[in-house]
Design goal:
The chain is 76% helix and 0% strand. With 174 residues, the protein is mostly helical. Helix 1 packs antiparallel against helix 3 (52-78), helix 4 runs antiparallel to helix 5 and helix 5 runs antiparallel to helix 6. The longest helix has 32 residues, at 109-140. The mean pLDDT is 84. It comes from Mucilaginibacter conchicola.
Length: 174
């Protein structure tokens, strides 16, 4: 059955396990590569951060991302797959754009820190969305351990996002 545009209806679309596995690994590669880029870049900000609690949040975020990457390594092992560099132009572009915006406000410490919070919030939101979609795919792949590891990554990303939001609220409403 097709819809008015001649395309299959969503109920008819079936992803075979090989296609789904390929999709899953490809997108896991993307998020893992983006996280590696983020871990390499974030520590560069710490010396420039004005808000002390933001310094702590950045350090915590780096630690959490490293834990998330370790969990993703376990997922690769469970899938008998090897991590490969994923296409990350969009994700690294966001990180690099963030660094440009932050540098543009180098003379205004408070605005620079708010830019850091703004971009880190956006990055955490993208990570959360990615983990949610991969969790749905893990259900279809019938792997509860992978789903659990992704849930832990999602929970950490959500906690980091909440922490950044609290820091932003503290300084905006001061």
């Amino acid at each position: 059955m097709t819809n008015e545009s001649g395309k299959p209806s969503p109920k008819q679309i079936q992803l075979g396990s090989a296609k789904l596995r390929s999709f899953f690994i490809d997108h896991l590669n993307r998020i893992c590569s983006a996280k590696a880029h983020l871990v390499a870049k974030l520590p560069q900000l710490n010396d420039e951060v004005y808000f002390k609690d933001l310094q702590l949040a950045i350090r915590e975020t780096v630690e959490d991302v490293e834990k998330q990457m370790a969990r993703m390594d376990v997922i690769y092992e469970l899938l008998d797959a090897t991590r490969a560099d994923g296409s990350i132009m969009g994700l690294t572009g966001l990180v690099d754009d963030a660094f440009e915006a932050i540098a543009a406000q180098a003379d205004e410490a408070e605005l620079r820190d708010m830019s850091i919070i703004f971009y880190l919030q956006n990055i955490e939101s993208m990570e959360m969305a990615s983990f949610q979609v991969l969790q749905m795919a893990a259900v279809k792949l019938k792997n509860k351990q992978i789903k659990q590891l992704l849930q832990e990554n999602y929970d950490e990303a959500r906690a980091d996002r909440t922490l950044l939001l609290l820091i932003a609220a503290k300084y905006i409403t001061k």
